[in-house]
Specification:
Elements lengths: L1 E5 L4 H14 L5 E8 L10 H25 L4 E8 L2 H11 L4 E6 L2 H9 L3 H7 L4 E5 L9 E6 L9 H7 L6 E8 L7 H10 L4 E8 L5 H12 L3 E4 L4 H9 L3 H7 L4 E3 L3
Parallel strand pairs: 1-2, 1-4, 2-3, 4-5, 6-7, 6-9, 7-8, 9-10
Antiparallel strand pairs: 5-10
Amino acid sequence: MNILLTTDFSYGSLKAARYIINLFGTETVEYTLINSANVKFAGATFYQDFLDEIDAHHEKELIKVAQELQAEFPLVKIKTSAEEGTLLATLEKYKVNEKMDLIGLGANGSSNLYEKLIGSTALDLIDYAEIPVCVVPVVAKIVNPKRIMIAISNPEQGLKGFETLIKEMKEQPSEIHLYHISTNGEQSLDPIKQNLQTLFNATIVLTHQAEDSGAAIENQILEFATAKGVDLFVTSPKNHNLIQRIFKHSVTRQLVERTHLPMIALKD
């Protein structure tokens, strides 16, 4: 498994890297740590040697971060790369030249968390990426998740890629909660439950159906997650009627500012 870790050298991005390495371990995973610097300048004369100095500085910082991670996880295999341009442009490069299975990034919490999730970093990344994206709030605890909640918008679409990610996790969860908010009548979660239960027979798979309550949909999710002790949230961003209502609703700021759960956004 190959995981791409993004960093802006903040505490939040380092914590996200630590969370993801702890989650997937070091035995069968290779990590690539990147920093993507989009340098804006005015005028036509901007010397390449100055850009090279920026890259060299960022590469040194990346090596320091990698060494810090290796001190905590001695067996981790990690490469570093300082890139020029936007993060999305960098991802396009890696999509063409490298096979990655997951992208990880951090969110800084409070109003910054809102800006990162709603702004050009995480939300654009989730929309653009063709592989799962793991977003880790700075307040998240670095633990192996025991209870995973999967918010399912359309049960007929299944959970492509989720089974692979679960198999790659260092420890299997004790519970998986399938959570579906019905908008067009009752849709059974039983086929997904049976598939997961067959693959992970030591894990309890539970299903939960909820009625669509419009604006309160995000509150239902948080209340459910809190009541069940959920510590990892999974969803598919291509199922826009759930994920976009969560992240673009008029009351989203309060929701995102107080959520503490890491999220894995699956891809269709």
